[in-house]
Amino acid sequence: MRRCPPRTERGVVLIITLIILVVASLIALSAQRNVALEERMAGNMLDRNLAFQAAEAALRVGEAAVSSNTLYASAPGCAATATSCTDGYYAAGAADDVPVWKHINWTAANSVAAPLSVPSGSVDLLQANPRYIVEQLDASTRTFRVTARATGGTAASVVVVQSVYVPK
């Protein structure tokens, strides 16, 4: 009976297993990066939604101030070019004036901090209290532009909302 000489081991299984292990590791690393990116996107969306909801609430407060006749009945309003305005109410300017909301300092006293009634501790999610201003668009009509600005949990999530409001 003839015997075949023993073959030398070539290690092909070891090489294939190592290649499969490297490919599986790369797939797992890619999946981990995607999860981290999705988590950051979800956090940014939360910040933006908080800012949007706070700006909407401040907009409603500003509209209520116009509707209650407390702003423009008691004060003549600041000029559109004023650098500070304590009540946040700006009188109608020239038609070619730059809108006030584009150039004011929202952190100073020339806008009004909107008082929010929220559950205890939830205002801490915002970077700062939302603020609003009221601009009279035309001196002959009672048409106002209410602009509200809010910042979410980070300074990068800023939302500005506006409405043109005509009180009844």
Question: How would the blueprint of this fold be written?
Answer:
Layout: H1 12-67, H2 70-74, E1 89-90, E2 112-113, E3 128-138, E4 143-151, E5 158-165
Structure description:
With 168 residues, the chain is an alpha+beta fold. The chain has one domain (13-165). It is 36% helix and 19% strand. It is built from 2 helices and 5 strands; from the N terminus they run ααβββββ. It has helices spanning 12-67, 70-74; strands at residues 89-90, 112-113, 128-138, 143-151, 158-165. Strands 1, 2, 3, 4 and 5 form a 5-stranded mixed β-sheet that branches. The longest helix has 56 residues, at 12-67. It is rod-shaped. Residues 10-60 form the Type 4 fimbrial biogenesis protein PilX N-terminal domain. Residues 88-166 form the PilX/PilW C-terminal domain. Pfam families: PilX, PilX_N. This is Type IV pilus assembly protein PilX. Keywords: Membrane, Transmembrane, Transmembrane helix.
Number of strands: 5
Instruction: Tell me the quaternary state.
Output: single chain
Largest sheet: 5 strands, mixed
Average predicted confidence as pLDDT: 83
* Overall spatial form: rod-shaped
Domain PilX/PilW C-terminal: 88-166
Transmembrane segments: 12-31
Domain Type 4 fimbrial biogenesis protein PilX N-terminal: 10-60
Organism: Plasticicumulans acidivorans
